[in-house]
Amino acid sequence: MVSKDFFSVYQCPQCGFAFTQDFPAESEIGIYYDAPEYVSHTDSHKGIINTLYHQARKISLRSKVRFVQKCAAVKAGTLLDIGCGTGYFLDAMRHHKWIVTGIEKSEPTRKYAHEKFGLNIQDSEYLFEIPAKTKDTITLWHVLEHLEKLNETMANLHRILKDNGVLFIALPNKKSVDARYYQADWAAYDVPRHLWHFSPDDFEQFAAKHHFELVKIKGMPFDPFYISMLSEKNKGTFAGSLLGLIKGGWFFLRSLFNTRQSSSLIYILKKK
């Protein structure tokens, strides 16, 4: 999307797990994030995609808070948000009496979240320093697919989550109706920033490997619109934002009849 470089996605013929082949090392991948198209870590409202993204974020933020409150084992406890970005979700949960901590790799983003909300934001290595069984809820909103230490991260999520804790992981769905439609132009492949590419079936296997039980799956209603707009941009379509909105609406309606075809999914996990 940014560099116009090409990367290959390889898929296991047995389990279906897919990964970006020959992705840049963690020390080198930062240049692929340093672009105006990557809006999840910025408050810029410039352009139609940014503007719509932030309007959708306001609505989805309220939805996330309600959903976590509903599914968590406690009404208010300790919450860790990994890849917390500019801190809006953490701030919202704090207003519901949760004790919140964030992890964010980007130093400027951590500084912004601290200055705007006064939040406790740590760097990436903090995950491996947290004492065992101390978090009631852990959330990763479109973050796991970015993390180089995939297995180590899942092992530590299991370690620090309380026995009755709940883990929320949001991921793009490579078996969604829009992924099948756009194929290599599907924006949610987002290579090389996305290192791993999951479907519901292979993610459930992966979670079980790390001793998690999948208890529920929920679609993310705004994602097909946003991803379709970016996918049309990838294709160089004239008036791509408008066409993407129209196609996104069709993909959203299709997913209403089968959650597992949703563009993005929230997986709710508990310890086995």
From TrEMBL:
Alphabetized Pfam families for the sequence: Methyltransf_23
Alphabetized, the UniProt keywords read: Methyltransferase, Transferase
Gene Ontology MF terms: methyltransferase activity
**Keyword field contains Cell division:** no
CDD domains noted in UniProt: AdoMet_MTases (cd02440)
InterPro entries hit by this protein: SAM-dependent_MTases_sf
What are its GO biological-process terms?
Answer: methylation
The answer to keyword Transferase applying to this record is yes
- Please report the name of this protein according to its UniProt entry: Methyltransferase domain-containing protein
User: Which organism is this protein's natural source?
Assistant: Dysgonomonas macrotermitis
